[in-house]
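Ticket #4471: structure output looks truncated?

Reporter: J.K.
Steps to reproduce: submitted the chain below (141 residues) through the standard prediction queue, then opened the result file.
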Amino acid sequence: MSGRGDWTEQRIDQLKALYAKNMSYSEIGAIMGVSRESIGGKVARLGLKPRTQFAFSPRPSRPRTPPKPIEPIPAQEAPESLNMALEDMSYGQCQWPTAEAGSIQSPVHKFCGRPVKPHAPYCEPHCRKAYQPSLYRVKAP
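Returned output as attached by the reporter:
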């Protein structure tokens, strides 16, 4: 017999027969003593019809369960803002803009100014407003 990489008519017929049995390239390669890449290349060069069914059966998919809705954060009465100008604020004060921030009547922006939550730029009530779960955002009342 010739070398392992030689494609004789007999080996091509064997490849076609194994391919018709719906065997995988790896299985055909193991039987014929060549790699699955060489089987794939020869199948492509021969122009054999692509398979619609494969040797393996796909795993049945599990039904998807919808994510549990996130409980809305209860609205709490925010403490009175100090309405501080930016130049009057120091480190550790809430940077939440108040209602009159940037309005036509007040050219100076005002901020809450209450003590901040640790490692956050806002006080506790404003952190609850600013950092809501991203999956289901709660609309502001």
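Triage note (M.O.): checked the attachment and the full token line is present. The chain has a mean pLDDT of 78.
Status: closed, working as intended.
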